[in-house]
Every structure is written in C-alpha cells, then in structure tokens.
Amino acid sequence: MGENRQLRLKRNIKQGEAISLDLFDMVTAPIPEPGVGQFLMKTVALGTSPAQRAYLMGADSRFHEPLDIGELMRGRGIGSVLKSNHPDYKVGDVVACSTGWQDYSIQDGDQTRMPVKTLQKIHAPSEPLYLHLGTLGASGFAAYYGLLDVAKPVKGDTVLVSSCAGGVGSIAAQIAKLKGCTVVGIAGGPDKCAWIKSKLGIDHAIDYKNEDIYEKLAEYCPNGVDVYFDNVGGETLDAALKNLALRGRIVICGLISTEYHEPPLPGPRHYYNLIYKRARMEGFFVWDYFEQFADAEAELTDWYKQGRIKPTERVFKGLEAAPEALQSLFSGVDTGIKVIEL
Ligand SMILES: NC(=O)c1ccc[n+]([C@@H]2O[C@H](COP(=O)([O-])OP(=O)(O)OC[C@H]3O[C@@H](n4cnc5c(N)ncnc54)[C@H](OP(=O)(O)O)[C@@H]3O)[C@@H](O)[C@H]2O)c1
Predict the structure, then answer these.
(1) Nearest atom in ligand 1 to 139's CA
(2) At the topology level of CATH, where does 3-133+311-341 sit?
(3) Given the CA of residue 236, which atom of ligand 1 is nearest to it?
C-alpha cells in the first residue's frame, strides 16, 4: 500500500506577515479507499490563488473560512480517477476540483453541498494537464469572462491591465490584444515590463515600482482608458479612475495590494469620475460562470493551439514546492500563472 503525502497547516500568519516556507508540515497517511458513490483521484498538479493566503490567517481572515492548525491545506488541483464507485466518473477520467495539497483525494462528485460548483470534468484534456488550472482553467476563465462578459471591449479600445505579468492579467492582456485593442500593462520592475511586452505582445508597459502611473497613463492613453482590468486595487485603481475615457468600464477581478490590510484602507479618491465619464465599475466571480466553462475552455484551447494565446505557467516541481509557489504570488518574483506539478 502506498502513501498519501499531505501538507498541513503548522501555524497561522499575522496581518502583514510574509508567507514563509515553514508554515506547513509534510505528513503521510495511507492512500484512502473510495466508499459508495465516491472516487479516488491522484493529483497531477495544483494551482495557486492569492485567496489561499486568507486560509492561513486564522481569526484575521476576512473573506474566506480559515484553516484550523493541523488541517490539510485547501487548494484546487487536477488529476485522474484511479478507482471509482461513482456512476459518472470512470477510471482515467481527468477532473479539476478542490483536492487540497496532497497526492490523493477522495471525491464524491456532489456539488450540491457547496455554495458554488467547482468540480469540472475535463472532456478533451490538453497536455500538460496543469494548463487546465491556468491558461485553459480558472485563471484563463477569470480573464475570459471578466474581460469579454463584464467589460466587453471593442476593437480600438484602450485596455489597461494591472498585475499584467501575473496569472489572470497575463491572459487578459493577450485576449484584449487578440480583440484588436491597444493594451497597456502594469507590472513591478523593468524585467517584468520587458517580459509583458516581449512575451504577451502588448503595446506599452508601466513599471509601477519605478514610474509615475498617473504620468504614464496620460502618455500611453491620451484618449483615456476604455477598459481597466483590475487585479490589484489601491493606488493603481485610483490612477485608472482618474484617467477613464467616456463610458469607461472597470472590471474588479482582484485587489491583491489592499485585500489583506487591517483595518481596511479607505476607498478610491477619484471615483467621482464614474459620474463625469458615465462610467461603470463592476466586480465578478469566476465560479458564477461554471455552467459556461466549456465555452471558454473551447475558445481558449483554439487560441492556444493556433499560437494566438501563449501559456504563461511558471511550474514549481513537487508537492514540497507548493509553499514556495504560494510565496511567489506575494513576493512578486515570478511571472505568469504559478502551478505545482506533482
Ligand atoms: N474575481 C475572480 O473570480 C477571481 C478569480 C481569480 C483570481 N482573482 C483575483 O485576481 C487577481 C490575480 O490573481 P492571480 O492568481 O493571477 O494572481 P497574480 O496576479 O499572479 O498575483 C501575483 C502578482 O501580484 C502582484 N502583487 C503582489 N502583491 C502586490 C501588491 N501588494 N501590490 C501590487 N501588486 C502585487 C505581483 O506582481 P508585480 O510584481 O507586478 O507587482 C505578483 O507577481 C488576484 O487579486 C486574485 O485574488 C479573482
């Protein structure tokens, strides 16, 4: 009988504390057996999400249910069915779902207990499978629906994307280019700015760590920002609000720069521009689109196969590298979608 390695929470982090590599214990347990109506899944890859930070924050967690000490780290993964007592899942099926940070998991396929559906059977898997957690998965779907359904860019629009060298941002920027828009990306540091221009083919890059965003927006968006795809909130959101075009659309995807600040920071100063520019600011939640995921997956896969969308996964190797992958989201050292291949 084999072993199931698991990463379990060792201690909570405090407000403002950086993610360190010693937050988890690696433990082993027997590989579980599926019961009636269940299947056993072997994890092939794990995704990462800034939301996972909240799981580590104990009582300080505002938006997500925190983990107890000793509990298995929560996270989305992809893998194949090894054993099945479930009529809808057969051995060899590829599934993306909440696996947790472990080699094997038991799933029951029951989505009725959850507030939103997240278990996705992949009918025509692309290789490598981790693409279905990133470019062809949740990151790609957030970029696809946030941009195309919420902001609805049209050819010739100027689209601004923050955390453009990050996971969702790197795909949103490419989709905007593909739709004939002028794309301005914001990223931290000259290397990331060079990367978003060369890898993603965007028009202009702003290094928010070393350049004045307000000045650069005025230079690169002389007619204003038609669409702002916001991953970071804070001062960058304010700069976008100030530079909005008439009937501009701001899509709130995430707010990584302020999300974990306690007490919560004051809101943007330039939101009056929503009135003057008859503009709209709207949030969205990718899992609300669950029933339409197959449509996004099909189109993203076509674009990927045609070379019109470049995957941006940064692959960390082995379950033991999962804390480093999570850390890299907040340290900003890596580009693209961070995934862990087991
Ligand atoms: N609404 C939805 O349904 C949905 C779905 C998925 C993700 N999200 C949200 O979308 C955003 C992007 O997610 P992702 O997974 O692709 O993450 P990501 O953008 O890859 O996040 C990591 C990057 O964020 C930037 N960053 C980190 N700390 C920052 C700070 N304090 N200020 C400014 N930038 C900072 C860094 O890039 P730089 O080096 O360039 O600063 C870092 O590389 C997140 O806020 C996430 O929570 C929302």
Answers:
(1) 6
(2) Quinone Oxidoreductase; Chain A, domain 1 (3.90.180)
(3) 33
* pLDDT (mean) for 301-327: 98
Residue ranges per domain, the chain? 3-133+311-341, 138-286
**Which residues contact ligand 1 via a Cβ below 6 A?**
49-51, 139, 142, 163, 165-169, 187-188, 192, 231-232, 253-257, 284-286, 329-330, 332
Q: Using CA positions, which residue lies closest to atom 19 of ligand 1?
A: 166
| Residue 166 Cα to ligand 1 middle (Å) | 6
Give residue 2's pLDDT. Answer: 84
Distance 19 CA to ligand 1 centre (A): 15
pLDDT tens, residue by residue, 176-219? 999 999 999 999 999 999 999 999 999 999 999 999 999 999 99
Q: Which ligand 1 atom is at minimum distance from the Cα of 51?
A: 47
**CA 324 – CA 144 distance, rounded (Å):** 27
Strands 39-47, 76-84: pairing is antiparallel
Asked if residue 64 has pLDDT above 90, the reply is no
Q: Which two tokens stand for residue 88?
A: 């809808």
CATH number listed for the domain at residues 138-286? 3.40.50.720
Annotate 160-196 with b (16+ C-beta within 10 A) or e (fewer): bbbbbbbbbbbbbbbbbbebebbbbbbbbeeebbebb
User: Which of 320, 317, 323, 296 has its CA nearest to residue 132?
Assistant: 296
Tens digits of per-residue pLDDT, 243-301? 999 999 999 999 999 887 878 888 899 999 999 999 999 999 999 999 999 999 999 99
**pTM, entire model:** 0.96
Whose Cα sits closest to atom 43 in ligand 1? Answer: 332
